[in-house]
Amino acid sequence: MGGSTLRSPRQLVRAGLIPETILDDVEQVAARYATAIPDTFLSLIETPDDPVGLQVIPHPDELIMAPSEREDPIGDDALSPVPGIVHRYEDRALLKPLLICPLYCRFCFRREHVGPDGGLLDEAALETALGWLRTHEQIREVILTGGDPLMLSARRLAHIVRALDDIPHVTTIRIHSRVPLADPGRITDELTGAMETDKAMWLVLHANHEREFTEAGRAALRRMQRRGIPLLGQSVLLRGVNDSVEALEGLFRAMVENRVKPYYLHQLDPAPGTARFHVPVEEGRALLQGLRGRVTGLAWPTYILDIPGGFGKVPLGPDYLDTGSGMVQDPSGRWHELP
Ligand SMILES: *Cc1c(COP(=O)(O)O)cnc(C)c1O
Ligand code: SF4
Prior knowledge:
With 339 residues, the chain is an alpha/beta fold. It is 28% helix and 18% strand.
């Protein structure tokens, strides 16, 4: 599926996405970090530095590692008891069955690991990971991530979902995916059928700009919703992509109008070579403050930081209560005494 996907820097030059003059540098970037631009996204790119192009076109700056950046920004490697499992919080664990994605985000927090030719847990490793989940009764929720779990074949996804179905203490299954908008043709009846389970199945859709909601993508979301799968949205706050009140408003409105509840707006994780996307936390808080009162409460995500080093996720505000003075701020910025 996904018709034609651009993968080599040569193809990017031919498509007019990068100038010939930086080809050597981009070859170096591509040798280090996976690159893929599916035709859905290609057709959305108007200029290489627009909100869609920036997300997927490799850039020479990716070779620059800032002092604050780390290869494993959120410390997943240290929290992995067996391959494919990451366990940081008592009640839930990640299961990463593969490391393939429909496209490769230039800001990806797992960019040192994801790529087209690796990371599929083989039969034995998958059984070991499922065995770990079976023997850890505190795990109520299994979060399928990767890579992108919807890049699995329907048969393999069905096998995993059925195995999780059979673990009594697992009550909730969550899938994080960019596929529905990046490669909507993959969301077939067979694939949505593979997600069928009596447990609570949630899908968290990764999208960063309203333009990603194409007609085909919207239809793919509907196919999952018709199967009774509730959809949440997760986005990353990115310089040049969605770092304005208008862009965030457009994104979250597009989600709500497609029955996708914005869940998290992530502060960018400091993965190598991603500094060009960095938006300071104070700016992020001000952007969200600009949305308060302006958009429906349904469109409001939690602005979240995954504390570098593996210490966990925490909300970054904005907050409206000044506990020192006991004053509370309204959406237009005026202060009031707490009743
Ligand atoms: C992000 C993450 C989760 C999920 O966190 P929620 O706040 O429940 O969305 C779980 N485990 C790990 C290791 C994570 O990085
Ligand atoms: S879809 Fe997720 S895992 Fe894949 S490249 Fe993008 S951020 Fe990374």
